[in-house]
Write a structure and sequence with these properties.
By secondary structure, this protein is of the alpha+beta class. It contains 34 helices and 15 strands. Among the domains are: 99 residues, Orthogonal Bundle (Arc Repressor Mutant, subunit A); 145 residues, 3-Layer(aba) Sandwich (Rossmann fold); 82 residues, Serine Threonine Protein Phosphatase 5, Tetratricopeptide repeat, CATH 1.25.40.10; 94 residues, Serine Threonine Protein Phosphatase 5, Tetratricopeptide repeat. Strand 14 and strand 15 form a beta hairpin. Helix 1 crosses helix 3, helix 20 packs parallel to helix 22 and helix 30 runs parallel beside helix 32. The termini are far apart.
Length: 780
């Protein structure tokens, strides 16, 4: 019999009760879903060895095809559940390249006692039964039955009845207790948090207390706080300035406009060094107080602990269950998180970012982490600000610090740290996907994880899933133009241009008029051949000369149609617009990024000229592709190898960009079979860029695999919504014609060439590719 089946198992103050499928830590229940509990048991039983990932997938999901990211997510949830002990031991250890191992020392289960006492209590009745092992009686002769007396029968019956009552009362008490722990006051709520009346005598501390309350409440999956960005956006919609004071009347209107349920407003009273803080939640509908809490602090240093208690009471009174509060309740108190001075610096940094004062914000965030090097949230903020300021090396350095300290923060901040770590350091999109999925499961009312899930799904080419994520994100942050753009673009990529148009028009109807919205509408017009819709977007672009997204979109379409003169003019306008905004690197990059497409359409002279703009960004793997058309494929591959070595977990670099670049170099050097092999390896990520399919078709055609190349070109042609601005679509018609001609199918070849000429009807007449295509067509 295995240890698991033998009774209670204990390790590091945890206890597993196999019979009840329950994990506890120092007698406190630890919540695990059934699959994660199965994972724990499986690793525990096999703690004498490393358990491989394939074995775990087969054991937990027998007979099913399940992605490894599912296992990763449950490993993550298990590690979080087993993170309460203080020894520093990582109970579930990753063994690189092999799997996972359970490392804690396990205490053997104690033998069953010879005396059993059961207790069951209710408000009126208390029953106690003691069952002792009786001494063996002398054996009787074979065939002699032991006489049964009425007294003995009554005792047996009474004992059985009593035992039944005990079990019933125990079960009722246990389930009642569980219901009490899980009881909520109804649906989850969103609140608008406003400034406190009164003062501590320190304006920075006053604002810090509001931010501390926001941090405390943000860890709740039941009570969500309207984001500061959403509050500012709503104030602008109400014709106020974004930093205007929020009066009770304004707060209530914000509450109604954002579909929130309550307004939180507090007061601070100070007598000497003693503080009294009160916070009230009032209904948006009628202004009635629905929850309130008052806490005091003997000193300023005790204020964070008072805010912790204040938030806990508010969460309970707003309806959150006791179990949820116990599970998601990491305190701000100095011994656990930050000093008061560090918290004040952190708060000031947060408020400087929306004002564009990045250098000042960075300086304050650095001061916060110097005061408390274990302030993980400040390291996170420092990383975010540095990334926004363009300091990507700093972003990576600071998020690594936050990642090391992620065990000290609340659950929501934990997810945020892991998300940025995956983005800036590892580039592991599958880990990012698992993190965002877990985040949205626990915090379904937060827009940030849904937005992150949309972005990750998009980067993996999972456009239908990205649409679902966007549909969750948009109602949670309806004042963000980025939400509409992200959802609309994915709706288009998923093959639903009408839905994409409706999303953009919804944004415009709500006053969210921006470059990206018109850029998506421009793409919709191209897919649906709606010339009137396209003309309106071009007119808008003419009236907004700094709209770089529209300009680059127009340039891409011009290039895809063989209009090289127009392409050059539009790229020049886009580059100038970037320079007017002080974005000189982007002004040069917009040219270099056009090099591969210019080469594809046969405009090698312009491709070489475009490459000369600025200096190649050796930190950006996408730019390495510009080296291939200008004849420096060896340097491109060398740079890419360096990226692979620096970022061995980066999904796109290792599993898409590196083999794709190698294929292009192999094609250029007339090694088509090698190119086909490399491009076949990236097939699982074909939905990311339509050009990978097109290049596979070229490699197959060059390798004389005619039927296979025809199938690929037809697949690209059938998916214009994947990227209607890509040159891959018209060029697939041209190469389909070439493949049909090699196959001897003249009629099909003529039809394909004619489709190409239709798409290139407005192409520059002297373009090399169109001239070559006409010569080939004449031979047919």
């Amino acid at each position: 019999m295995s240890l698991i089946n033998s009774g209670l198992v204990r390790f590091e103050d945890y206890e597993i009760d196999r019979a009840r499928w329950q994990l506890t830590w120092r007698d406190e229940p630890v919540q695990l879903n059934r699959k994660t509990f199965d994972l724990l048991l499986y690793l525990l039983e096999r703690r004498d060895r490393v358990v491989g990932k394939d074995e775990l997938l087969q054991a937990l999901w027998p007979g099913q095809f399940v992605e490894e990211s599912n296992l990763t997510q449950h490993i993550f949830l298990l590690r979080k559940a087993l993170s309460r002990h203080g020894s520093g031991l990582k109970i579930v250890q990753t063994v690189a390249g092999r799997g996972y191992r359970f490392t804690a020392e396990v205490m053997e289960p104690e033998p069953a006692p010879e005396r059993m006492t059961l207790h069951a209590s209710e408000s009126i009745t208390r029953i106690t039964i003691e069952e002792e092992q009786e001494e063996a009686e002398p054996a009787t002769q074979l065939g002699e039955g032991r006489p049964s007396t009425p007294a003995r029968s009554r005792r047996v019956v009474l004992a059985a009845v009593a035992a039944g009552v005990v079990i019933a009362l125990s079960a009722a008490g246990w389930f009642g207790w569980q219901r009490w722990l899980d009881h909520t006051g109804g649906a989850a709520v969103q609140v608008v948090l406003t400034a406190m009346d009164g003062t501590t005598g320190d304006a920075v501390l006053d604002q810090t207390l509001v931010d501390a309350l926001r941090i405390d409440l943000s860890q709740s999956p039941f009570v969500s706080v309207l984001s500061a960005a959403a509050l500012r956006s709503t104030l602008v919609q109400m014709t106020h300035k974004p930093d205007d004071p929020v009066t009770p009347e304004i707060a209530r209107e914000v509450c109604e406009r954002t579909n929130s349920q309550a307004v939180l407003r507090g007061t601070i009273a100070r007598t000497g060094r003693h503080f009294l803080i009160t916070e009230e939640a009032t209904s948006c509908l009628d202004g009635v107080i629905v929850a309130a809490s008052t806490q005091d602090a003997a000193t300023a240093e005790a204020l964070p602990r008072s805010i912790d208690k204040l938030a806990e009471v508010l969460r309970r009174k707003l309806g959150e269950s006791r179990r949820s509060i116990a599970r998601f309740n990491v305190p701000l108190s100095p011994e656990n998180t930050v000093s008061l001075d560090a918290l004040k610096d952190y708060s000031q940094a947060l408020h400087l970012v929306p004002q564009g004062k990045m250098s000042e914000a960075i300086a304050l965030a650095k001061e916060a982490v110097s005061l408390d090097p274990k302030f993980a949230a400040a390291w996170l903020q420092l990383s975010v600000i540095s990334g926004n300021a363009g300091d990507y090396a700093g972003q990576r350095e600071y998020i690594k610090k936050a990642y090391e300290l992620r065990g000290l923060v609340n659950q929501s901040t934990f997810f945020n740290i892991v998300a940025i770590y995956n983005q800036a350091v590892t580039g592991d999109l599958y880990q990012a996907l698992a993190n965002f999925q877990a985040w949205t499961t626990l915090y379904p009312r937060l827009s940030v994880p849904w937005s992150g899930l949309l972005q990750t799904d998009r980067e993996l080419g999972r456009h239908a899933d990205a649409v679902v994520a966007g549909q969750h994100a948009l109602p949670l942050n309806p004042r963000s133009i980025t939400m509409y753009y992200g959802l609309a673009l994915e709706q288009l990529h998923a093959g639903d241009p009408l839905a994409a148009r409706a999303t953009c028009e919804l944004a415009l109807s709500r006053g969210l008029d921006g470059d990206t919205i018109h850029g998506v509408l421009f793409r919709v017009a191209a897919v649906t051949n709606d010339s009137a819709l396209r003309a309106r977007q071009v007119a808008w672009s003419e009236a907004h000369p700094d709209a770089t997204y529209m300009l680059t979109s127009e340039a891409s379409l011009a290039l895809a149609q063989g209009r090289f003169v127009d392409t050059g003019k539009l790229l020049t306008r886009a580059s100038e617009a970037y320079r007017r905004q002080g974005l000189n690197d982007q002004a040069d990059a917009v040219w270099r990024q056009s090099v591969p497409a210019l080469a594809d359409v046969g405009d090698l002279a312009d491709a070489r000229a475009a490459f000369q703009h600025g200096t190649l960004d050796t930190e950006e793997p996408f730019e390495f592709f510009a080296l291939v058309p200008v004849g420096d494929g060896a340097k491109a591959e060398s740079l890419m190898r360096g990226e692979v070595e620096k970022h061995p977990q980066a999904t796109l670099t290792n599993h898409l960009l590196a083999p794709w670049l190698h294929a292009l170099v192999a094609l250029q050097e007339h090694r088509p079979a090698e190119a086909v092999d490399a491009l076949n390896r990236i097939a699982p990520l074909d939905e990311v860029f339509i050009e990978t399919r097109f290049d596979r078709g070229l490699a197959l055609l060059a390798n004389k695999q005619i039927p296979e190349s025809i199938a690929v070109f037809r697949d690209v042609i059938a998916r214009p919504y994947a990227d209607v601005l890509s040159e891959a679509i018209p060029l697939s018609w041209l190469n389909l014609g070439r493949a049909r001609a090699l196959q001897g199918n003249r009629a099909a070849a003529v039809d394909a060439y004619q489709h190409f000429f239709t798409l290139w009807s407005s192409a520059d007449a002297d373009g090399e590719l169109v001239q070559q295509a006409k010569r080939e067509f004449t031979k047919l």
